[in-house]
Write a structure and sequence with these properties.
Largest sheet: 6 strands, mixed
Radius of gyration: 31 Å
Mean pLDDT: 86
Structural class: alpha+beta
Number of strands: 13
Order of helices and strands: HHEEEHEEEEEEEEEEH
Low-confidence stretches: none
Distance between the termini: 118 Å
Shape: elongated
Strand content: 35-45%
Number of helices: 4
Amino acid sequence: MNPVLRFFTENITAKLLSVAVAALLWVALVDEPELIETVSVPVEYRNLSAELDLSPDAPSRVQIQVRGPRTRLGEVNGERTNVVLDLAGMRQASTRTFSITPETINLPSRVSLVRAMPSQMRVTLERRVEREISVMPQFLSSAKWKVLAAEVSPTAVKIVGPESSFRDLRTLNTEPIDLDKLDPEKPISVNVLLPDPELAFRAQPTVNVKVSVESTTAEATDNP
């Protein structure tokens, strides 16, 4: 039998069924009505200079309104879709306005951007600075002990971040220390806390605190 003829005659039922299924899928996709949906997606900043940092008020998310078939709109979400802003042109501390266009959003096929809210984003870059900030121990109130003195080692830690985040920063606090669970003979290791999520530690954010205390119950006994 002719090989070409054999191709069309062998397993003809299965082949006809495959063609029918493909045709039905094509019709379903072509006839699928388009919907409009509003989604909140993250903003991704690329090519940020190592000497610069995003200003604390830099937008982290944006609302986008998109149009497309229901099956495709399900792929538009915060895990698969984001707004990408290229900061390669910003080589020093400055402010620039970016327009949100279809080219800045990775949308699936057959989905189009109706509008972004806002349609423009103003991005400010600041100098990235590093400073040593003194550490102050914090204590939970105790009915049994009064703090006489506290030694912190190291006395300061290095942190980095946008310059504006250091404007009113004079000291960093430790996590609260529970005096009722403290052994006065041993220093305790505690975490240092950052007041601003834009800041980051240069090294391990822990310090050792040696506390001198006196008993408040003894004081009450001495003064009947």
